[in-house]
Here is the input.
Amino acid sequence: MMRLFSFAIVLLAGFVAQPNDAQAHPHVSVTSTSELIYATDGSVTGIRHAWTFDDLFSAYAIQGLDTKTKGVYTREDLAPLAQVNVDSLKEFAYFTTARSGARKEKFGDPVDYFLEYKDSKLVLTFTLPLKVPAKTQELVLEVYDPTYFVAFALADKEPLKLVGAPANCKLAIQKPAESKPQQTLSEQNFLNGENANYGANFANRMTVACQ
Here is the structure.
């Protein structure tokens, strides 16, 4: 039987199997790079993410995966994992919010998704199309996990590219004031719901203004 997994199942199994080290949030680290995609009329049509998972999570995710060539993981080999991952991400709203003023934009189903294995790490690439293209003077994009199960960090170099944007569009990036928790947080801290939005403290905010 082909081995598949979802985010929730794999992450849960990971910390249960490692009770000493994995009881504290976050459990997985992701480095994010994104592209904001524009149409010729200046409207935003979608967001393309490329998420690089930490090496420990990546090693766990591919453990026992059947491949055509031992030790080599092609896009074709990883396609079933990519499918289940993007399906599972819907439950978490793709860890992505986009706002035009007070309006929260809605996303369609992911397209053009695939997994790659680079430098001992899995990289998930997928595009989130907006259900309705947004033609706005300002768009705010945030990438984070409210429960802080997954810690997102922006790539040091070009964390967000503007693809096809009007020449007058400017990008501002605001990284979280807190780069890591001030104290170790056990699983118990998140079971009663009091910290359901704790990850907002570590949200990465990217603002595009087109005047």
User: Anything to note?
Assistant: Residues 1-23 have pLDDT under 50 and may be disordered. Residues 97 and 142 are 5 Å apart (CA to CA).
